[in-house]
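Hi R.,

As promised on Friday, here is the backbone we talked about, encoded as structure tokens. Could you run it through your design pipeline when you get a chance and send me back a sequence?
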């Protein structure tokens, strides 16, 4: 029994997840992922961990469905494979944007975000105009690319993921990084010589993505809507981002639903 869903959602989920005639068991839901600290990684034994892994594993359990995570080599690959239907869900801290809505279906948001510029503390960049003539590392096809490209005189350095962006900064191949605030704290903890310079753009939100013809969006949304308004959601956030941040993060996500 799928708890917390309306009757129509239950019927839809059964249609999506039920095995075809003659099959011994349901074919797993394939999720395209790319590593992002706090959201999706694998532990020493290869088991998935992180907020995105937790949320989708909980959904699959509620639907009595099998789940498999496909590790893609880049953020771009997650988008491409999900759009093409090679995966039924994409999970890679994908920001909801109007442009992407023409390419994907989105779940309800599960995490608030803002793009921030990170620098070596000695650089003292304080505003966008300070980046004129500077090399700024950004992950391909992310919201950061548009923000940085819109600042006159900036030289974007396109990379595959956040780890590569910070590596470019540490190696002197970039003068700053523009990336999601959600992942910044992890890297700042590892590199005390780095610090946040300033935010750019408005608050945004992460959500899961689905191919345009997906039947999974409704069941996933029904599950997330119930979870987000519960104390359990705060506990899940605290597990990955600390108790001090969990209540605030949850309140931001709840506000996005209104």
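Update: got your reply. Pasting your designed sequence below so it's all in one thread:
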């Amino acid at each position: 029994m799928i708890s917390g869903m309306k009757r129509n959602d239950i019927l839809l989920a059964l249609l999506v997840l039920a095995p075809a005639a003659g099959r011994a068991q349901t074919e797993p839901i394939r999720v395209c992922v790319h590593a992002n600290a706090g959201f999706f990684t694998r532990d020493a034994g290869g088991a998935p961990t992180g907020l995105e892994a937790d949320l989708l594993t909980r959904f699959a359990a509620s639907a009595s469905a099998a789940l498999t995570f496909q590790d893609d080599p880049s953020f771009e690959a997650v988008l491409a494979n999900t759009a093409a239907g090679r995966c039924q869900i994409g999970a890679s801290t994908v920001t909801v944007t109007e442009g992407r809505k023409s390419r994907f279906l989105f779940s309800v948001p599960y995490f608030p975000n803002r793009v921030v510029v990170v620098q070596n503390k000695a650089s003292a960049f304080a505003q966008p105009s300070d980046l004129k003539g500077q090399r700024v590392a950004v992950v391909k096809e992310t919201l950061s690319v548009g923000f940085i490209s819109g600042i006159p005189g900036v030289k974007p350095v396109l990379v595959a993921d956040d780890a590569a962006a910070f590596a470019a900064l540490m190696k002197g191949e970039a003068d700053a990084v523009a990336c999601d605030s959600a992942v910044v704290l992890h890297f700042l903890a590892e590199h005390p010589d780095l610090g946040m310079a300033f935010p750019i753009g408005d608050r945004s939100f992460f959500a899961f993505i689905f191919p345009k013809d997906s039947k999974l969006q409704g069941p996933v949304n029904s599950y997330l809507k119930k979870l987000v308004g519960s104390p359990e959601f705060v506990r899940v956030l605290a597990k990955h981002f600390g108790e001090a941040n969990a209540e605030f993060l949850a309140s931001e996500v709840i506000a996005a639903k209104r």
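One thing I noticed while checking it: Confidence is low (pLDDT under 50) at residues 1-25.

Thanks again,
M.
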